[in-house]
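pinging the channel bc i need a second pair of eyes. not urgent but kinda urgent?? the chain im working w is below, pasted from the shared doc
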Amino acid sequence: MTPKELKTQYRNERLAARDAIPADERIEKALAMAMHGGDEIDIEPGTVVSGFLPIRSEVDIRPLMARLRERGARLCVPIILDRSTIVFRELVPGAPLVPCGFGTSGPGPDAAVLDPGMMLVPLSAFDRTGHRIGYGAGYYDRAITRLHEKGLNPSLIGIAFDCQEVPSVPAEPHDVRLDAILTESGLNFVSKAIG
């Protein structure tokens, strides 16, 4: 099996496991993540943090994002501009959300575009060494590359349920490793020396 085939298999299996979590359990698990990460995630007031608004069976991290805002974070969410590009628009309380394609919603085109210093990244699957499998379109990999090209190095925290962990993600040269992973069990930092 090629690395790409294995990633596809893991993605399909772990998303099916995520889909199987009953909605009320997903809410409880999301609240546990907010408790674990809300105070443990290291941010300075004014830090730009990109989160996301949940689609399908994703973790609803709005409680976590609210806690980070209380601690001084400036929030933004990804907006898909075209088949290869996302930008991060500022998410302010009370601002209307508009459909943004692929089942997502977010702030409209009048919202400020920000460069995050920290990214809360949704995952299909992950391993303990910080390798991740996204949804297959490469949006986050390209966004992170663009930030690196600007001289920025955002910290990357993967967001997933425990059931999305796999033994080992086949890493490819373009893959960017996470700094930490937040699940309902807690916030786990990744040693870059591993793997």
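so The mean pLDDT is 93. and Residues 28 and 184 are 9 Å apart (CA to CA). — does that match what u expected or am i reading it wrong
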